[in-house]
Structure formats: C-alpha cells, structure tokens
Amino acid sequence: MRRIVVGVSGASGAAFAFRTLERLAGLDDVESHLVVTSAGKTAIGLESERSVGDLESLADVVHPIKNVAASIASGSFATHGMIVVPCSIRVLSDVANSRGADLLTRAADVTLKERRPLVLMVRETPFHLGHLRLMAGVVEMGGIIYPPVPAMYIKPATIDDLVAHTVDRALEHLGIDPPDSARWTGPGSM
C-alpha cells in the first residue's frame, strides 16, 4: 500500500485538490491522508459547488490541521510522499523556513527530512523575488515546485481537461502514473 499525504491550503485552485483525491481514490494500492488548512476550507467554499465534506469523503484518512500528534507528523510513519495542492505562498514560506506551525507544514517538513518527494503546487502569481527565493530554498532541500501551468499540447476541450492533465503530471513525481493520462509521444499523438 502506497501512502500519499495530500495537503490543501488556502490558495485558489480547489479543483486541483478535488481532482488529486479523485485520482488517488481510484487506485486500489494507494492510501490517501488528507489535511486541510482553515483557509483551504474557506477557499473550497468560495470556489466550488462541492463542500469540504465532499473533499474529505474522497480521502482514506482525514487529519485535523491542529493535530500535530497525527501519524503524518512523524518520520517513522512511512509514506511515499506528499503533495500540497494548491499551495499558498504562506505554506510555501512555512515549508521553506522549516516552520511546522500546523499539521500540514509539519508533515511537509517531515517529508523533506525523510528525503521523500514533496510536491508543492504553488498557485499564486505573479511571483516576486521573495517568492522565487522561497521556492529555490524548497528545491535546494529536495522539494518539487509544480505550479499548475496548463499544457496546451493536449488540446483541451474543457477546464477539467487542463486540471486533470496538470494533476496527473504532478502525481507522477510521487510515483503515481494514472493509466489514462494524456501523454505526448510526438506530433499527432494527441
């Protein structure tokens, strides 16, 4: 069983969070652990017709943001990595500065210290130099910065096509390879 931790922060992009958990829920060999910040819950309410409860129902295990004694806060709890989707600049800053202020940022710090893949889907733009320096710091620690930049070569017909492809590509960095993901194999492949 592959355990994947999914963190959801308050940046815009609730659709990416839902799609990530939908993808993971469709895999029999994946156990998903979800932690959502209070700002993340607010963003879901503002951006989606679906509720926080709908998001939580897609996860195998849901952890309260303030429970820093949860399993995912310990390096001895083996996981295959973590994705923060979407990732706010605040969470990026806490991760870059090793500030485990809540369960999400503690789990991210544990992921880095255990040398497991950490994917941050940083969702705020434009970036100023401070943001870029924070991102560089996370990369230097072994993290992966994966802003949700859409790939047009898939010839998307809907926004969901863009969201799905972006999530699938981000999940690849955690060793998750959705079988029906759009793949570029050369001209005419899409």
Discrete helix count: 7
Mean pLDDT: 95
Portion in strands: 15-25%
Looking at the structure, what is the overall shape? globular
**What sequence of helices (H) and strands (E) makes up the elements?**
EHEHHEEHHEHEH
The separation of the N and C termini measures 32 Å
Strand order of the largest sheet: 3-2-1-4-5-6
Structural class: alpha/beta
Rg calc: 16 Å
Oligomeric grouping of the chains: single chain
Largest sheet: 6 strands, parallel
> What percentage of residues falls in helices of 4 or more residues?
25-40%
Number of strand elements: 6
Parts with pLDDT < 50 across at least 5 consecutive residues: none
Written account of the structure:
- With 190 residues, the protein is an alpha/beta fold.
- It is built from 7 helices and 6 strands, in the order βαβααββααβαβα.
- It has helices at residues 14-25, 38-47, 52-57, 89-96, 103-113, 129-140, 159-172; strands at 2-8, 30-36, 61-63, 82-87, 118-122, 144-145.
- The chain has a 6-stranded parallel sheet with strand order 3-2-1-4-5-6, with helices on both faces.
Give the helix/strand layout.
Elements: E1 2-8, H1 14-25, E2 30-36, H2 38-47, H3 52-57, E3 61-63, E4 82-87, H4 89-96, H5 103-113, E5 118-122, H6 129-140, E6 144-145, H7 159-172
Parallel strand pairs: 1-2, 1-4, 2-3, 4-5, 5-6
Short structural description:
The protein has 190 residues and is of the alpha/beta class.
Give short descriptive properties of this protein.
six-stranded parallel beta sheet, 190 residues, 7 helices, alpha/beta
